Amino acid sequence: MSSKSEKKEKILNSHISNPVWLSVSESAKIGGVTNKTIRRAIQANGIKYKILKDRYLIDIASLIQYLLKTKKLENKLNKYGIGQYVNKWEE
Predict the structure, then answer these.
(1) 42-60 tens-digit pLDDT
(2) Residue 1's pLDDT band (boundaries 50, 70, 90)?
(3) Contact 76/70 with Cβ under 8 angstroms?
(4) Within 10 Å of residue 62's Cβ, how many Cβ atoms?
(5) C-alpha closest to that of 32 among 60, 89, 74, 71
(6) Which residues pair with 55 in a beta bridge?
(7) Does pLDDT of 2 surpass 50?
(8) Beta strands 55-59 and 21-22: pairing type?
(9) What are the angstrom distances between the C-alpha of 22 and each of 30, 56, 81, 90?
């Protein structure tokens, strides 16, 4: 694993005292993907989620990890999701 990958893993796996939970539609908008993609990730246990009053809530850290796993999803994150507002991700 390169030092860049190790840094990403360390940041995303660090203990977070107040995690941010997003709805399926919010997760899709942030990731630049469709709701269907998020629901597939839930079904495949690719992201961390909880159910509250019959609604899925997705952990933002696990969402970002999931979107960075493949180049296609990473490109969507950067082009259509929150990445379009970031000039350069912190390395």
Answers:
(1) 999 999 999 999 999 999 9
(2) very low
(3) no
(4) 18
(5) 74
(6) 52
(7) yes
(8) antiparallel
(9) 9, 8, 14, 22
Over the chain, what is the mean pLDDT? 86
Token readout for 9 is 């893993």
Write down the domain spans for the chain: 20-80
Q: Are 31 and 42 in contact (CB under 8 A)?
A: no
CATH class of segment(s) 20-80: mainly alpha
Q: Of 4, 3, 21, 26, which is closest to residue 62 (Cα–Cα)? A: 21
Token reading at 20 = 């941010």
Q: What is the pLDDT of residue 27?
A: 97
